[in-house]
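Supplementary Methods, section 5.1.

A reviewer requested that the exact input to the structure prediction be made available. We therefore reproduce it here, unchanged from the version used in the analyses.
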Amino acid sequence: MPPKSTPRPKLGSRPQNLRHAAKFRRLLLRWFRRHGRDLPWRRTRDPYHVLVSEFMLQQTQVSRVEAYYHRFLARYPTVEALAGSEPGMVRESWAGLGYYRRAANLHRLARTVVAEHDGVIPADPAALERLPGVGRYTAGAVASFAYERATPAIDTNVARVIRRAFHPRLAGPGAERRLWQTGAAIMPRRRGEAAWAFNQAIMELGALICTARVAKCDECPVRSACATGRRRGGWASGSKASRRPTRN
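The structure derived from this sequence is encoded token-by-token as follows.
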């Protein structure tokens, strides 16, 4: 009789991995409301302005985007203004930010929104993902930051925080799916300012404290609700797997 195979373990369980979620959320929001950076795109809920900031922040540091954000919006104050401009003008306005494919995609998106959505940027993440240049993260970010939807927005920074806080041993082909599931599970349940603040806060934590180079556990406001912070080892000195470009 052949030996029984050992069942493959699940990627964590809710009681074990998410039991500190409420505490994590509470500590994170309290820290962000006291220490979050005053960034220009955090002062608006205008979907077009939020979308412009998200396109600019792809692969570009926050400090560099701040120098271009207001200038670009002054030239193209509405999605209709951007849609009606020539591609060469849009590229010229983007000069200095690099990665010019982003400008081309943003221009195509503006024309699609005007032609197919009557100039209204969708609030639904699935509809947003169908727009040119919009992936799952950007769709979640616009839905959350413009419409205050309680939907996760998981970029590299956020994925790192979730992994370290709730799934420090997570690996394999199902890892990304589990990170998105956890991101949805730990968010405030209702749409509104708390959902907006949570997504801003977890990105801020990944950009400033729980960084790719080093996890600053001694400075982290959620360390008592974090699997890695409670262990006080491993990531504290960084790892090769975590050293990927992030926005900060």
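The two ends are 58 Å apart (CA to CA). These observations are discussed further in the main text.
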